[in-house]
Amino acid sequence: MSLYVMKFGGSSVGDTERMKRVAGRVVEKADEGHQCVVVVSAMGDTTDDLIDQAKMLNSELPAREMDMLLTTGEQISISLLSMAIQALGRKAISFTGWQAGFRTEPVHGKARINNIHPERVNEALAGGNIVIVAGFQGMTEDGEITTLGRGGSDTTAVALAAAIKADACEIYTDVDGIYSTDPRIVKVARKLKEISYDEMLELANLGAAVLHPRAVEYAKHSGVPLIVRSSFNHNEGTVVKEEAAMEQGVVVSGIAYDKNVARISILGVPDVPGVLAEVFGALASEQIDVDIIVQSGVMDGKADFSFSVALSDRENALRVLEGLHSRLPYREVTSEDNLVKVSIVGAGMVSHPGVAAKMFQVISSQGVSIKMVSTSEIKVSCVIDGDKLHDVIKALHTAYDLDTAEQAVVGGPQVRR
Amino acid sequence: MSLYVMKFGGSSVGDTERMKRVAGRVVEKADEGHQCVVVVSAMGDTTDDLIDQAKMLNSELPAREMDMLLTTGEQISISLLSMAIQALGRKAISFTGWQAGFRTEPVHGKARINNIHPERVNEALAGGNIVIVAGFQGMTEDGEITTLGRGGSDTTAVALAAAIKADACEIYTDVDGIYSTDPRIVKVARKLKEISYDEMLELANLGAAVLHPRAVEYAKHSGVPLIVRSSFNHNEGTVVKEEAAMEQGVVVSGIAYDKNVARISILGVPDVPGVLAEVFGALASEQIDVDIIVQSGVMDGKADFSFSVALSDRENALRVLEGLHSRLPYREVTSEDNLVKVSIVGAGMVSHPGVAAKMFQVISSQGVSIKMVSTSEIKVSCVIDGDKLHDVIKALHTAYDLDTAEQAVVGGPQVRR
């Protein structure tokens, strides 16, 4: 007998028919002799409908009351799923975030979990129940209802799995698992049997958003094995764990891309100490995340440097730089979009020199120039022109021996709803 | 500065436009310099919609999960109303039942309030907030979410008013106040300026269901003045309090009726001790409330007796009696519907003999025979044939000097939605 946490997203419980299917899936697992805790999101469009109602009453959407409002979405899901499971003859009980013991920091809309007191979950399991827990929500020490923000239900599932020492946390989604790259671009993408937390983190952060990075970090920290699998079939899925068995000769596990990229360049900046700190401090204080930073050579005491930000942050970043001009007499600021960041990820590349060089060569052979580069021990990222993205990804997939004979079969786009 | 609890039902907050109107009404009160706590029900059809969804998943509607499900209805209302009030420039904060400190017995679907710990409500008021509290719900000592059952939001309002020592509890409804009788039947019904708790209790129990009897009992017990008034206009409403000022010469304050009545007769029962206890014990154990009981004379060691029950309980009651036949050899059981219970209520009748006699006389003068009678210190009830109900009520209204010159103006039927 194993203890599983099973997480189903909003589209998996979009209506009562789908709810019944999820109930059946959970009972199947219980019938195999396992203990099950189910984490579930709000049904389909519930959250959007509630937001629409709120907008009609208060355009500012005050955060504390929005948490009060939106947490009803998961509370509806858990009670209905519990009833659906009971209708199949199994004992089931639902808990809100606060009932399941989720204590968060006192922040609304994007609280972090401080700790979990899962006594009631454990007691209910011991009493033979399937336990249903509302994703995405918690409570402060003062009894205020909070939400965990983006990726919240994944994080709920992983954190709860760690707290109750589950054997695994299964994330049910609309794809079969983690693929070597986007199967919509490369038809012969391979489904990965296993992947390490670090590789998954790189992929998650790079836009292959089947799992939220925060959930992966939590899993890595606590050592809970994650299983990403489809809610529509019984295929095996991908296991995310500490030390993924490395296939013979596989250096690169996956290729990710991110279209949400803009490059900003500051030209002719006085080359004095503290300049970078000033620029990036100002950007950080506006909540703008900077990804890659490149400084070019200094000439006549002036330097040029470039950095990449999310496309959606570009206007905001340019405004911040304009505001700095009085203190920082640069010559010019330019920016560029229609870019894409392509990344190869693989734990194997640590011990294989030349992996990056091969990437640059493959990209060049497609007639594409590389604008920025960043590397980590298990990743190389290149910012390139977006026009030939598909050709570049296909060429890299082939060059790193990732093509399989079979075509990838996926239930939908490999993008998180 | 006074402290008011204001209660709005589901139809008053049926959509976002009505929600805005309620917000405006509350802010008006606050602008007069008062502290306001608002108790609100689920919006319009929300509860019914949730029940429909649940039915599709589990026809048994398990009580614990139904409480989990249905309490989301009020949670949506309170957060939206809080946002609507904030949009008008006032500080507001919403609390669920458990956050407002409602502790109930461990029963689902119809829990009674054990006690209230309103610290958070008091703190929020002290902080200058308008406080919005979810009606109809509470929490057990074990942290289980419960609902208070029928009339729950009225009870929430009154109990909270008592707990925070409010100066009054205003029940906003779709009628102007409490009338001397149903204004749909008697056009010249009079709106009562004041009425005592006891009179209101009799009227509430007798089907003039503007206020739920449980809420009136709570108010009587705690001495909180209730004000029943319209959410659609600023008319004065009716004050329900301990000692209502008695108008000169008014003996009867109101005339109520209840169509939900059936009479059951058991004929030829052996007249031995314990028979009544056996019959009514068996009915009570099936949750059947018996109202009036009449035993006729004994002949040849056999007795006949009749009792009234709610029409909806008739079949169930007959089944119970059938089950008793082996132990209780009665001759025959008969039952009768198309009946109505008409009642006159008035604190003044204690000191005015002949009030009941006058009632019997008025009913007889309409050619209607009286089937059963029951009396209390402030009430006389007669079960009669339903056919001439309107004539009887009009005649009683005139006989007890209740007719006014003006026609009653009401926003809707004097029946609780």
UniProtKB/TrEMBL annotation, chains A, B:
Q: Which reaction does it catalyse?
A: L-aspartate + ATP = 4-phospho-L-aspartate + ADP
Membrane-spanning parts: none
Instruction: Please tell me the species this chain comes from.
Output: Paenibacillus illinoisensis
Q: Does the keyword Transport apply?
A: no
Record EC number: 2.7.2.4
Q: Transmembrane helix as a keyword?
A: no
Please name the GO terms that the record assigns under molecular function. aspartate kinase activity
One family name in Pfam for this protein: ACT_9
Q: Would you tell me the protein name for this molecule?
A: Aspartokinase
Q: What is the lineage of its organism?
A: Bacteria, Bacillati, Bacillota, Bacilli, Bacillales
